[in-house]
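User: Some background: our group keeps a shared notebook of sequences we're curious about, and every so often someone picks one and asks for a predicted structure to add to the entry. Today it's my turn. The entry only has the sequence so far, pasted here. Could you supply the structure so I can complete it?
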Amino acid sequence: MSEETKTNQTTCGDCLCQGAGPAFTEFLRRLGPPPEAKRHFDTARVEFLKGLRSLIDQRISDINRTESKGASITVE
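Assistant: Of course. Here's the predicted structure to add to the notebook entry:
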């Protein structure tokens, strides 16, 4: 048994995956963007959501604005 297999079994315990879970997680982590790019994408996502919030807030204020239903006139 290799040292890596022993490490995975002690990390993973006696589960059915036999260490495949942590190995698959590491594989997926390596497929992702580098940390600097991930930070950039996260910041861009936050800015996009802020823009959506601004649009929604504007629409809510437009809906809540009361329209004048008629004109007030004085009768003599």
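Suggested note for the entry: The chain has a mean pLDDT of 82. The chain is about 70% helix and 0% strand.
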